[in-house]
Structure formats: structure tokens, C-alpha cells
Amino acid sequence: MTRFKTPKLLITAAVVYGVIQALYSLGIINGYILHIINQSLIYVILAASLNLINGITGQFSLGHMGFAGIGAYVSGTLTTLIFKLNPSIPGSYLLFIVAILAGGLVAALVGFLIGFPSLRLKGDYLAIVTLGFGEIIRTVFNNIEYVGGPRGLLGIPKFSNFTVIFIVTFLSVAVIRNIIQSPHGRAMLSIRENELASELVGINTTRYKVLSFATGAFFAGIAGGLFAHLLQLAHPTQFGFSKSVEILIMIYAGGVGSLTGSIVAAFALTFLSEGLRLGIRALADATGLPIGGEWRMVIYALLLIFIMLFRNEGLMGTKESKVILIEEAD
Q1: Bridge-partner residues for 92, per DSSP?
Q2: Are 234 and 153 contacting, i.e. CB atoms less than 8 angstroms apart?
Q3: Predicted model pTM
Q4: Per-residue pLDDT at 6
Q5: Which of 33-37, 73-77, 272-276 has the lowest average pLDDT?
Q6: Where are the domains positioned within the chain?
Q7: How far apart are CA 168 and CA 55, in angstroms?
Q8: What is the pLDDT of residues 9-23, one digit of tens each?
Q9: Distance between CA atoms of 294 and 300, rounded to whole angstroms?
Q10: Which residues pair with 153 in a beta bridge?
Q11: Cα–Cα distance between 20 and 293 in angstroms, integer?
């Protein structure tokens, strides 16, 4: 038996939220830094949900941002084209929550429909199927004129502020944490360690793999909805293969199977990527050399290779912070 150790996680989250809000109110953190923090929080949801699939259950998905795209377009369509919401109107946030949940549920449904037949595959074959799925989703949205086609869905109301994103991220991490450390999570872990042995002791491996895939897709859809309502647009290029790889890198850099590692890596790599972008721009301005932004990705990749060579288990390995862990009951 375990007890739901929410207070310690909740207190830690409240302290972090209060510190960031205080720094922003005092002008120590400007709007630009707060925007990067918001993006990092959304990447935490994406990395944690993909870790449930890849790190905990041992599957290998390369199309995770496809589910985020579904959540972004479904929620954006509801708030922009159907409900026509305005954040300044009372009651709009309630419909926004409905739209975000709808995006997550549609992503979970698609994850179930894709996962049920494809999760019979393993390893590279599963990776190829999920990669193809991600590209199909991107192409579909690129050709639906109702949601903007290649222009993207524009004019999405900005409901995603720091408070909203922080609360949703906290709830997402708490739910994923409790799934991982529940009997269902242990069943998923057993599949990762030895699928045949899991079947022999009576675990329905197909059921748990599909459950993991659909749950990860749900939270990816939630993150996609938050992302669309932060940037105020949803564009097919935001949810392509390269973005899926970025999330994949986060979970491997942070530690496969470590929720704490996903959180740390999401923040570290988001700020690192943005810092490199600004640094290269400053260098180009100072020297007058035609240094393009693509060099940022070269340096980013080299740093990641360095991490993988000298700490191939990731920053956290399989360890979890005491704040994340659920203590055993006395």
C-alpha cells in the first residue's frame, strides 16, 4: 500500500510558483524569460508523457508531437472558430478548460486507435510506424483549409498564462507520477524489463501498452493545447519530426524512466537552446560574419553527444527526487 504524497509535492510547487511570481513582479524576470519558463513547463508535460511510453513501458515512439498537434488544433478550433472565446469575458476560462480537455481526449482516442494495432510491433518497427503517424497528422492539418491549411490556425486567444500553465503542469506531473508508482505502473515497468516474463505471470501486456500509449497521448494533447494558446497559433511545422526528436532527446538526456530527469532536462535544454540562439545572434552582430541560426543546433547536438558519451544514463539515471517519490506507508 502507498499513500498519495501530495502535500510535499504541492508545497514544493507552491514555493516555486511564488518565487517565480515574486521575481517577475520585482522586475528581476522580464516577460521574455517568463515566456521561456512557460515553454519549459509545457515541455515538461511532453517529456513526462513520452517517458511514460518510452521510459516506463519500454516502447519507442517517434511521433509524440503528432498527438500534441491534435490537441492544439482541436482545442484551438473550439476556442477560436466554434466558441469564439475572449479571455476578458467572464466564464471564458471554463470553456477553455473544456476545449483543452477535448483536445487531450481526442489525442488519447487517436493514440488508442493507433496504438492497439501498432503496439504488436517492437523496437525499430514501432518507431517507424509512430514516425509515419506523426508525419500523417502534420500533412492532414496542412491540407485542411478550415483550420488554415499551410497558413496554420491563426488568431487563437491567449488563455495560456504562467498561472494556467503552471497549474496544468503540476496536475499532469502529479497524475503521471501516481500512475508510474501504482500497480499499473509496476506492470508497465515489468513489460519494459521482460515482456515475455510479464505475460507468463499473467500481465495483459497489450492492455498496458495501449493504456500507456493512450495516456501519454492524452497529456501530449493537453500540452499541445496549452502551446497553441500561448503562441496564439497552431501551425503544422510546430508538430513535425524534428520537434518529436527534441522531446525524445529530453527524456534520454534526463534519464530514461526518471520523471525528475524529464523535468530537469526540459528546463535545461529549453534554456540552453534559447541561450545558444541568442549567443550566436550576438556573435554574428559583433563580428559581421554570416553565422546562421542552424549553428545553434550543431552546438546543441555536440553538447548532447558529450552528455551521452560521459553520462549515458542521463542526468538523473533512473533516480527520482524525494519530492516525486511516494513514500511507503508505515
Answers
A1: none
A2: yes
A3: 0.93
A4: 57
A5: 272-276
A6: 6-240
A7: 22
A8: 889 999 999 999 999
A9: 10
A10: 234
A11: 29
C-alpha angle with apex 53: 255 to 269, nearest 5 degrees?
40
| Residues 30-42: tens digit of each pLDDT | 999 999 999 999 9
Q: What is the 3-state secondary structure (H, E, C) of the chain?
A: CECCCHHHHHHHHHHHHHHHHHHHHCCCCCHHHHHHHHHHHHHHHHHHHHHHHHHHCCCCCCCHHHHHHHHHHHHHHHHHHHCCCCCCCCCHHHHHHHHHHHHHHHHHHHHHHHHHHHCCCCHHHHHHHHHHHHHHHHHHHHCCHHHCHHHCEECCCCCCCHHHHHHHHHHHHHHHHHHHCCHHHHHHHHHHHCHHHHHHCCCCHHHHHHHHHHHHHHHHHHHHHHHHHHHCEECHHHHCHHHHHHHHHHHHHHCCCCHHHHHHHHHHHHHHHHHHHHHHHHHHHHHCCCCCCHHHHHHHHHHHHHHHHHCCCCCCCCCCCCCCCCCECC
